[in-house]
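Re: your question from the hallway

Yes, I did run it. Sequences:
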Amino acid sequence: MASNPLFILLCSDQHERLQMAAMIASVAAVSDRPVQVFVSMNALVLFGKDTPADKRYQGGAFSKLLKEKHAPDALKLFDQGKELGDLKMWACSMALDIQGWEIGHLVEGLFDGALGLTKFLSDAENGQFITL
Amino acid sequence: MSERTKIDARGAYCPGPLMELIAGLKLINVGDEIEVLSSDKGSANDIPEWVKKVHHEMVGITQQDGYWSIVVRKAK
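Structure:
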């Protein structure tokens, strides 16, 4: 039986928070727990398909360690979570509009589509909610 | 007779070894086993926890020189 669904709101563009979101999402998804990730605000830019890797992973001292130690790539973790578990990723439709992007501007194969906050919040009413 | 596949995940950090195990489990038959080699201490604790949660079987875990050998049997 599937566990309590998990909903992650990712707003920060900080590498450490992106990494934590990817770790939580992927591990929960492969542990028979449905996961939905809603990406908005500064975090959306991290997922731009033309965003260079050195701009994608910026943060503090721990970000440097993550890179030096070759910790698993955050976007690859999201991808593995989708491939091996029940993980859905949504791009905030408002953030896409503000950024002037369509869903096609984001990395291929990661997002299930654009979604409004109202729908995400409604779906999240019966699950656990985490903001990063 | 069951078969055993070895995955060398030494050098990978959490949750890398777990993800490699799960990807490997997708490819083998029920009853077959995977041995994961991991130098990540967190994964040595997390993999048995994951196996218990999703109802596969832990065959054994042994600490070697600088890494762990974790053997899991696919149960479903």
